[in-house]
């Protein structure tokens, strides 16, 4: 609106000025080097204006001729760069989506369009890896080592490749190269930790773990939990090698680091038994029985302490231990199981039947059924088997990652290679069918919790994170 008003005002001013100049034509004369021009002032003014406009047009054209090719080239380069970056972005997306064919195509295009070799190498290496072309991937990752700023990425790529190919030593070597350049590099420490775990080299794994904590990559709680798992394995190894004092210290450390772990308490007892310190072992079990009663501790108490014991003596031992926490399900299970093995059926049935309904699982029902069967009470046996089919599953050493049930606790799951995922817990699924009373007798007691397999396969690399 304001512009319209201004335009109108300018037009009015121009027409008034034109009219005024027409009313006062005046005269204009030039006398120069024999040239003589005589005209009115209005005409001279018009010639001057036209001349200035023509001069401006000529200047514009000339400058366009001089700078034109340069800006054309600049625009072309800009377009190329934009297309290169677009190919790079789409290539990275294709890698993330696992589309090997598109990834390689886009990677080649990005490399052709972009003058950024390390970046192009990275995309090309990832694409080659996706297309399962390890030679090309290795060539690209290795080339990235030449540039200071991409050397670490190259080392990481090579380490990941080595682990995929099952070459733990090469992966650790690359990780150590990275650590030499930048101590505390998280991926490198984690690589060393995981490879050493898979190799069962607990000492080296623990060193890497300590470094991870020192560089603040792990919180204290997590670090202590992991450390206790490693200390348990190291205590077992020391004990097996006859280094009983070291084993004792490590087992004690494991308990201190993670007081609630049954596997730590069990290891402490096993280590004491291996060292021939039976009174110490007995005392440890008794200390644990109140708050942390565990069937393995009960079994150790009954069978391993004191050597050649008669079945009746074993039942007495079970009763002695059960006295510490008489109403606890584990106490009653231990007495029932030991009495059943000793053929003292009355005690076995009585103890199994006394377990509170809320605490009953398949172990209690199976012991009750077996004891009733042995007693010839087929009706009670059938009822107990029936209850066993619906009862809660018995606890066991179960990997939370792959659900494999192990016969023994391990720091590394032998099935899926995960670290510190095996714990004493109940499986999520209920046991399938009620066993036939006339068929072969099922396994009794806590042993019933353990399926036959323990697919520990040492040396397997952990699952890629
Ligand atoms: Zn597992």
UniProtKB/TrEMBL annotation:
<feature type="compositionally biased region" description="Basic and acidic residues">
    <location>
        <begin position="231"/>
        <end position="249"/>
    </location>
</feature>
<protein>
    <recommendedName>
        <fullName>HemY N-terminal domain-containing protein</fullName>
    </recommendedName>
</protein>
<feature type="region of interest" description="Disordered">
    <location>
        <begin position="443"/>
        <end position="465"/>
    </location>
</feature>
<dbReference type="InterPro" id="IPR010817">
    <property type="entry name" value="HemY_N"/>
</dbReference>
<keyword id="KW-1133">Transmembrane helix</keyword>
<feature type="region of interest" description="Disordered">
    <location>
        <begin position="220"/>
        <end position="249"/>
    </location>
</feature>
<feature type="transmembrane region" description="Helical">
    <location>
        <begin position="43"/>
        <end position="73"/>
    </location>
</feature>
<keyword id="KW-0472">Membrane</keyword>
<feature type="compositionally biased region" description="Pro residues">
    <location>
        <begin position="452"/>
        <end position="465"/>
    </location>
</feature>
<dbReference type="GO" id="GO:0016020">
    <property type="term" value="C:membrane"/>
</dbReference>
<dbReference type="InterPro" id="IPR011990">
    <property type="entry name" value="TPR-like_helical_dom_sf"/>
</dbReference>
<dbReference type="Pfam" id="PF07219">
    <property type="entry name" value="HemY_N"/>
</dbReference>
<keyword id="KW-0812">Transmembrane</keyword>
<feature type="domain" description="HemY N-terminal">
    <location>
        <begin position="26"/>
        <end position="131"/>
    </location>
</feature>
């Amino acid at each position: 609106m304001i512009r319209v008003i201004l335009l109108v005002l300018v037009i009015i001013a121009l027409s008034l000025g034109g009219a005024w100049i027409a009313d006062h034509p005046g005269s204009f004369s030039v006398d120069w080097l024999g040239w003589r021009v005589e005209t009115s002032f209005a005409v001279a003014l018009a010639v001057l204006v036209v001349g200035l406009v023509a001069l401006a047009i000529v200047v514009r054209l000339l400058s366009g001729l001089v700078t034109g090719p340069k800006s054309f080239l600049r625009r072309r380069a800009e377009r190329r760069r934009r297309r290169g970056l677009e190919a790079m972005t789409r290539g990275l997306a294709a890698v993330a989506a696992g589309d090997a064919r598109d990834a390689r195509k886009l990677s080649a295009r990005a490399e052709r369009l972009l003058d950024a070799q390390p970046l192009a190498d990275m995309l090309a290496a990832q694409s080659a890896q996706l297309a399962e072309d390890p030679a090309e991937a290795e060539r690209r990752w290795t080339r990235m080592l030449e540039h200071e700023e991409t050397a670490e990425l190259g080392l990481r790529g090579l380490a990941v490749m080595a682990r995929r190919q099952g070459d733990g030593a090469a992966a650790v070597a690359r990780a150590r190269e990275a650590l030499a350049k930048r101590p505390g590099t998280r991926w490198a420490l984690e690589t060393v930790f995981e490879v050493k775990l898979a190799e069962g080299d607990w000492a080296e794994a623990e060193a890497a773990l300590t470094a991870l904590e020192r560089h603040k990559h792990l919180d204290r709680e997590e670090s202590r939990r992991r450390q206790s798992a490693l200390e348990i394995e190291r205590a077992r190894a020391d004990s097996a090698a006859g280094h009983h004092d070291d084993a004792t210290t490590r087992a004690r450390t494991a308990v201190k680091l993670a007081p609630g772990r049954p596997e730590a308490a069990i290891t402490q007892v096993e280590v004491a038994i291996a060292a021939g310190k039976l009174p110490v072992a007995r005392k440890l079990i008794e200390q644990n029985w109140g708050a942390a009663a565990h069937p393995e501790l009960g079994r150790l108490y009954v069978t391993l302490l004191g050597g050649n014991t008669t079945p009746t003596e074993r039942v007495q031992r079970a009763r002695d231990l059960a006295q510490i926490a008489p109403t606890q399900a584990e106490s009653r299970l231990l007495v029932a199981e030991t009495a059943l093995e000793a053929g003292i059926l009355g005690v076995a049935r009585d103890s199994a039947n006394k377990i509170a309904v809320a605490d009953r699982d398949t172990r209690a029902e199976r012991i009750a059924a077996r004891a009733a069967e042995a007693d010839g009470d087929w009706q009670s046996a059938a009822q107990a088997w029936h209850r066993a089919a619906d009862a809660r599953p018995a606890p066991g050493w179960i990997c939370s990652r792959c659900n494999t049930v192990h016969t023994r606790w391990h720091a590394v799951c032998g099935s899926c290679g995960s670290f510190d995922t095996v714990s004493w817990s109940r499986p999520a699924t209920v046991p399938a069918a009620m066993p036939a009373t006339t068929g072969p007798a099922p396994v009794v007691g806590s042993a019933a919790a353990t399926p036959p397999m323990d697919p520990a396969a040492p040396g397997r690399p952990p699952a890629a994170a």
